[in-house]
Specification:
8 helices; binds flavin-adenine dinucleotide
Length: 319
């Protein structure tokens, strides 16, 4: 694990990020990175929050760090609150904007609440010495990077903090392998819902369409709960949050918990026998419908007119 220290030019502010070692070189090239802390201790090979927390507590309690940030993930949701609680500070999760006022040392955040139906604005004043927060990646543009291989970046080893009797042990990691684009970052996503009826139909209908579009595959919770696909493909409030250029929702009703995970998609195509509820959200300017199409599933998708239609259709839904 590496800790990244980012210091803004002409500022005493630092940001501390947690990154995987495999991404180390990539992060060194990021604009604004000027210092990297790392540890080679075997106890940090797996990011077990109970083991990493004492290290971060020790680093942060005697440091000039003012902000601690990580992308929103299961690991960061477990790690950051532990560390901030040890330092008697709060953590904010899944923020979608951040603004720092250097004259008052206050930082103002926004974050979606009620499955994205309301936006909460939160101000962390100066007496919150270190602002801990996790970030919804889809709400921010990618960081720019430079070509050099981390030239000028200070790299420093840190002493590990031994945890003699860890209560949690890493047994094994099972990763679902797929040749398809990664759901979290894909520019196109095809998701299937309960209407697909079973795993076999899901595979027959969704995968050919996804392959033809070069898209990642997603699913509603109903489809995941019914065992059509693995739960790593769930999109929504309790699944992944995506914001692709194109989101195709096949046989998905558009429950608010599903919308919470995809409503920031640039173009949404709903394949449904009824109109997808998202059309009533005024901040989505484009909503295209192809309905109803999958009574005779696979053949339609494998023909190019259907693909052309999906990619270029311009018939707005009636809300
Ligand atoms: C705390 C909580 C968290 C949740 N988190 C999530 C989450 O992260 N992600 C998520 O997706 N859900 C989540 N849910 C569940 C959510 O409320 C819905 O139950 C779920 O999204 C419904 O999935 P669905 O749209 O596939 O199924 P349904 O609601 O059953 O919709 C099926 C759709 O298929 C259409 N259809 C049926 N037959 C055809 C046909 N022949 N041709 C075309 N269309 C057809 C229907 O018109 C309907 O719109 C959560 C719920 C709770 C309470």
């Amino acid at each position: 694990m590496c800790l990244l220290l980012l210091k803004r030019p002409k500022s005493k502010r630092f940001l501390l990020c947690f990154i995987e070692e495999s991404k180390y070189e990539l992060f060194c090239r990021l604009e604004g990175v000027n210092s990297v802390l790392y540890s080679t201790s075997a106890q940090y090979i797996h990011l077990i929050p109970e083991t990493v927390s004492p290290l971060l507590q020790s680093l942060l309690s005697s440091s000039p760090f003012t902000h601690v940030v990580s992308s929103t993930s299961s690991t960061s949701k477990s790690l950051l609150p532990r560390v901030s609680a040890l330092l008697d500070l709060p953590t904010l999760s899944d923020i979608t904007s951040v603004e720092h006022d250097s004259s008052t040392s206050a930082t103002t955040f926004t974050r979606p609440i009620y499955a994205g139906n309301a936006i909460s604005t939160i101000r962390a004043p100066a007496d919150v010495k270190i602002k801990f927060f996790t970030v919804r990646g889809t709400a921010f543009p990618p960081a720019s990077s430079h070509e050099t291989d981390g030239e000028g970046v200070e790299v420093k080893a840190v002493e590990s903090v031994e945890v003699s009797d860890p209560r949690t042990e890493h047994i094994k990691t099972t990763i679902t392998k797929s040749d398809r684009p990664d759901l979290g970052v894909a520019s196109r996503v095809v998701s299937g819902g309960r209407a697909l009826k079973n795993a076999e139909t899901f595979e027959k209908v969704i995968y050919p369409l996804a392959d033809a579009l070069g898209a990642a595959v997603g699913a509603s919770r109903a489809a995941v709960d019914a065992g059509y696909v693995d739960n790593s493909l769930q999109v929504g409030q309790t699944g992944k949050v995506v914001a692709p250029e194109l989101y195709v929702a096949v046989g998905i009703s558009g429950a608010i918990q599903h919308l919470a995970g995809m409503k920031d998609s640039k173009m949404i195509v709903a394949i449904n026998k009824v109109v997808f509820a998202l059309a009533t959200f005024s901040y989505i300017s484009l909503m295209f419908c192809v309905a109803p199409v999958f009574r005779t599933p696979t053949p339609l998708y494998s023909k190019s007119p259907m693909l052309d239609l999906l990619l270029t259709c311009t018939k707005p839904c009636q809300s």
